[in-house]
Amino acid sequence: MSFDKLFGPYLAGARRIVITDPYLQMFYQVRNLMDLMETIAMYKVADEDVAVHVVTVEDEFNGEKQAENLQKIAEICQGFGLQFTWVLDTTGTKHDREIVTDHAWKIVLSRGLDVFQRFDLNDAFNFANRLQQHRQCKEYNVTFVKILESSL
């Protein structure tokens, strides 16, 4: 399993994508977000930009590091036709995780982007570190909903 195979066909052609995942706090969770950004970059139309907006919740223990990591993603995406923005939801009510596109797809994620078992992020010579299809998966559900009118 990889984000490319799982999400790629549903993200292809989107010009605006909103990702809501209140659990993008730990490094490996933000790394999964970066993996998704790579998938979006691969499936976007070559000469078009894609606006990607992330809604998450601040890590109460490492909020500065979380913000730093999200900002790094924003900076690297600029050179790849991705306009990455993010906001920290402060309502205290966010729980559901989803991806919504401007071309009528809503992807409901039971575990958010946290679908892989832990692996050694520091082992540069481990295929699981570079290729998602070599990572063990957690149990999760994904529901793809075709919506009649996009709210984006």
What would you say this structure looks like, in words?
The protein has 152 residues and is an alpha/beta fold. The protein has one domain (3-146): MITD, C-terminal phospholipase D-like domain (Endonuclease, Chain A), CATH 3.30.870. 30% of the residues lie in helices and 22% in strands. It has helices at residues 3-11, 27-43, 63-77, 127-130, and strands at 16-20, 50-56, 82-88, 98-101, 105-109, 142-146. It has a six-stranded mixed beta sheet with strand order 3-2-1-4-5-6. Helix 2 (27-43) links the parallel strand 1 and strand 2 (50-56). Helix 2 runs parallel beside helix 3 (63-77). The longest helix is centred in the N-terminal third of the chain and has 17 residues, at 27-43. It is globular, with a radius of gyration of 15 Å.
